[in-house]
């Protein structure tokens, strides 16, 4: 049986930590769907539109033949069902992420028949977050160590506006 994993997130922007997880997941699962949340939580104010985020993610993972990138604007459980995914993949950078992610996994288990698996990024990416990358870029810092070169260029252009 082919196993499909769905990796949801805002990806605003996609970082080297995200791409590390996607690369490794592509070796573990037959199909990986990167689900880009069209409408992130109210506390998040995306720097990029959903169309821009889709393009940026595709730029970074386009070389992986079993990885698809799609936007979703529904409850995650509904997206998982619609794509017939058996696995919800979540990244954990630190122990502090675990409590919230554990709650999400428990809720999702009640809503959909899919297992949540947690992956940690490679150690050199464990401190990177999209919000920190956006902040460094907004203050004129060099983000080239944290994101793909095309993402760094897109961020530089965005903060110039």
For the termini, the CA-CA separation is 48 Å
Report the uncertain regions: none
Classify the secondary structure makeup into a structural class.
alpha/beta
Helix coverage percent: 40-55%
Gyration radius, to the nearest Å? 15 Å
The CATH superfamily is known as HUPs
Q: In the CATH scheme, what's the topology name?
A: Rossmann fold
Quickly count the domains: 1
CATH class identity: Alpha Beta
Mean pLDDT: 94
Strand content: 15-25%
Looking at the structure, what is the overall shape?
globular
Biggest sheet: strands side by side, in what order? Answer: 3-2-1-4-5
The CATH architecture category equals 3-Layer(aba) Sandwich
Work out the helix count.
Answer: 6
- The total count of strands amounts to 5
Largest sheet descriptor: 5 strands, parallel
How would you characterize this protein structure?
The termini are far apart. With 161 residues, the protein is α/β, with parallel strands linked by helices. It has a five-stranded parallel sheet, with helices on both faces. The longest helix is centred in the middle third of the chain and has 17 residues, at 95-111. The chain has a single domain, classed as Rossmann fold (3-Layer(aba) Sandwich), CATH 3.40.50.620. It is globular. The protein contains six helices and five strands, in the order E-H-E-H-E-H-E-H-E-H-H. Helix 4 (95-111) links the parallel strand 4 (87-91) and strand 5.
Short description:
With 161 residues, this protein is an alpha/beta fold.
Q: Could you outline the blueprint of secondary structure elements for this entry?
A:
Layout: E1 4-9, H1 16-28, E2 31-37, H2 50-61, E3 67-72, H3 76-82, E4 87-91, H4 95-111, E5 115-119, H5 130-138, H6 149-160
Parallel strand pairs: 1-2, 1-4, 2-3, 4-5
